[in-house]
Design goal:
The protein is 31% helix and 26% strand. The protein is of the alpha/beta class. Helix 1 crosses helix 3. It is globular, with a radius of gyration of 18 Å. The protein has a domain of 213 residues: Rossmann fold (3-Layer(aba) Sandwich), CATH 3.40.50.880. It contains ten helices and twelve strands. The two termini are 26 Å apart.
Length: 305
């Protein structure tokens, strides 16, 4: 089944060029199917690119998905045209009385700041509290995972000596978990962050289960037993050239940045990128949609969560 995207959203055209089935809202209304309602709290500065990355992964399943894009009302993005935000985004005030099958909270370039100093922190806390009662399963990504772990369980983030930047191998440590179905024992995923979660605090938290981790990049995938809260510390949704763009951007700015690990073929920028994480990114999102959203969410979203 296709993903349902608003007419004229840039992601729709991009995915159609990739031969991914995108359905218009008007055509979806003619089908006697209730799509899964997924709200994306997009905190990334590159909002249009992130829309496409997430829509690509959510579209690659047999389940019809309807996306709602949410921006913060307390902070206006400086990197996305205001016309795009007005056309395709809503704010929390407009959905606070609605219910959703799933929520995705993205990363954000604020990880080196204390959580409480982030301009929209209070609003994000309100959204995360809302997710407990109005969202069946929430997927937190990168800084969104750090923010969710801190808000829900008090787990701190810690600064790294240098940026965790590149493609890293991870081991599945709970193969029986539905999120891990079909995963190879070792798989790759991108990371791009200056901080890490406190693993000692995670190990002491009885509500959390570690599903996959990396010897170098640390804990990658965590979940509550119910799957109502899921945390991904990396960026499996990243495109082939996203890390390349970030690397070139930082080089142009004269920032201290090392070449992303395990990314360029032979560590040579001119030889291209070893795109080795795409299949497991699709598998992670399809497993989430199937086992923790579609199979478990009530058909009637007005029923008790």
């Amino acid at each position: 089944m296709p993903i349902i995207l608003p007419k004229n959203l840039p992601a729709a055209e991009a995915l159609e060029h990739e031969n991914i089935f995108v359905m218009s809202e008007s055509r979806a209304l003619s089908q006697n199917i209730r799509p899964l309602r997924i709200v994306v709290v997009n905190l990334m500065p590159t909002k249009i690119a992130t829309e496409t990355q997430l829509a690509r992964l959510l579209a690659n399943t047999p389940i019809q998905v309807e996306l709602t894009f949410l921006r913060t009302g307390s902070y206006l993005s400086k990197n996305t045209p205001e016309q795009h935000l007005r056309a395709f985004y809503t704010t929390f005030d407009n959905i606070r009385n609605q219910r959703f099958d799933g929520m995705i909270i993205t990363g954000a370039p604020v990880e080196q700041m204390p959580f409480e100093d982030v301009e929209y922190w209070d609003e994000l806390c309100e959204i995360m509290e809302f997710s407990k009662t109005n969202v069946w399963s929430t997927l937190h990504v990168c800084w969104g995972a750090q923010a969710g772990l801190y808000y829900h369980f008090g787990i701190e983030k810690q600064p790294l000596d240098k940026k965790m930047f590149g493609i890293f191998p991870h081991r599945v440590v709970r193969p029986s978990n539905p999120l891990m179905r079909g995963f190879d024992e070792v798989f790759f995923a991108p990371h791009s962050r200056h901080t890490n979660i406190c693993e000692q605090q995670v190990e002491q938290c009885p509500q959390l289960r570690v599903l996959a981790k990396s010897d170098e990049a640390g804990m990658f995938l965590l979940s509550t037993d119910s799957g109502r809260q899921i945390f991904v510390t990396g960026h499996p949704e990243y495109d082939k050239l996203t890390l390349d763009s970030e690397y070139r951007r930082d080089l142009d700015k004269g920032l201290p940045i090392e070449m992303p690990k395990n990314y360029y073929i032979g560590d040579d920028m001119e030889k291209g990128v070893n795109f080795c994480w795409r299949s497991h990114a699709h598998l992670l999102y399809s497993n989430w949609l199937n086992y923790y959203v579609y199979q478990t969410t009530p058909y009637d979203l007005s029923s008790d969560f």
